[in-house]
Amino acid sequence: MKGRLVEWRRHLHHNPEVSFHEEQTARFVRETLESFGGLEISRPTENSVVARLVGERPGRTLALRADIDALPITEENDFGFVSQNPGAMHACGHDGHTAMLLGAAEILSGMRDEVDGEVRFVFQHAEELFPGGAEELVEAGVMDGVDAAVGIHLWSQLPVGKVGVTYGPMMAAPDIFNVTIQGKGGHAAMPHQTVDSIAVGAQVVTNLQHVVARETDPLANVVLSVTRFEGGTTHNVIPGTVEMEGTVRTLDPAVRDRMPGIMERVIKGVTTAHGADYEFSYTRGYRPVVNDDGLIREIEETARDVVGEGNVEAMPPNMGGEDFSAYGQRVPAAFYLVGAGNEAKGITAPHHHPRFTIDEDALAVGLKMHLAVATRMLGNKGGAA
């Protein structure tokens, strides 16, 4: 299957579509699935595809999920299948996720008489953009009757050939905040006649760092990053307003609940002290991804059979966000990593980087994991991989 996996992945990489605009991607997925035969194919939303493989005998229902959307990034790679869509790029491995799940669907559809229960192949749109596609699919009933949901994320920080598993909280809740500082503009040569919104804003940024350093338990996983700071138009004018935006990442729901109140207290204190006003908004993103212990244990045991004891790594939680968490609100769910980095080949760029790519040898590992997890969970422990 490796040649077909690479072909599919490169086609998708060459033709990326960003969140909620995956029209041609969904069409490609649907047409490819139709070519396999034996699958019940539906379109629960405009840009997603679900295929059901119903076995000959009753049993559990397993959902396998791949995300299909790209990011709004201009690609800087120079290989032959770089993005041909300006401002869109598969910079997170979703092209590989889709190719691996297509491979699993093709192989398992030819094994229908060996399947107990059902495999539901979920090709999900819009993972990268809140409110995300997973929530829409859950609301559309895609998880109805499902006993477990499993997803793979190709991971460039893990060497190809390895599988990473995490028990409990795995990925963070990615919340967003916006702050506007309202001062009083004026001439840069006469700052005493102004309320300098840039100076006040800089103090807000500095003091927000104390929210993590001094307001939260050192053992709690919290990230607070200001990622946009805008104000001013020229060198000799102090602007009356600056705007900033950022993200808060947490794993613990109780810590998450406390963050907006602490932040606003800090912002209010700084702006009041300097005679400025503020506007503050805080938007909750996806929930944290929390792996079901029993399910991730099955995946870990399966991985030991597929890649060998020495290639299974216990991974700490990371502060990225993933809307796979929506599935875990309805059914036991587990999300795990398949290594896709290769320093010897120069494949080291982080996710969401304009030079991101994967070692395509990872596609075969991910396919084997999909097959082995499916056959194990549906009662056929002889293993298809």
Strand order, largest beta sheet: 1-2-4-3-5-16-6-15
* CATH class membership of the largest domain: Alpha Beta
Shape: elongated
The quaternary state of the protein chains shown equals single chain
What are the low-pLDDT stretches, counting only 5+ consecutive residues below 50?
381-385
> What kind of sheet is the major sheet?
8 strands, mixed
Residues in helices, as a percent range = 25-40%
Encode the helix/strand succession as letters.
Answer: HHEEEHEHEEEEEHEEEHEEHEHEH
Mean pLDDT metric:
96
Number of helices: 9
Give Rg in angstroms. 23 Å
- Into how many domains do the coordinates divide? 2
Strand content: 25-35%
The name of the CATH superfamily of the largest domain reads: Zn peptidases
CATH topology of the largest domain, what is it called? Answer: Aminopeptidase
**Number of E-state strands:** 16
Structural class: alpha/beta
Structure description:
With 385 residues, the protein is of the alpha/beta class. The protein has 2 domains: 259 residues, 3-Layer(aba) Sandwich (Aminopeptidase), CATH 3.40.630.10; 111 residues, Alpha-Beta Plaits (2-Layer Sandwich). It is built from 9 helices and 16 strands. β3, α3 and β4 form a beta-alpha-beta unit. α1 crosses α3 and α2 packs parallel to α3. The longest helix has 21 residues. The protein is elongated. The termini are close together.
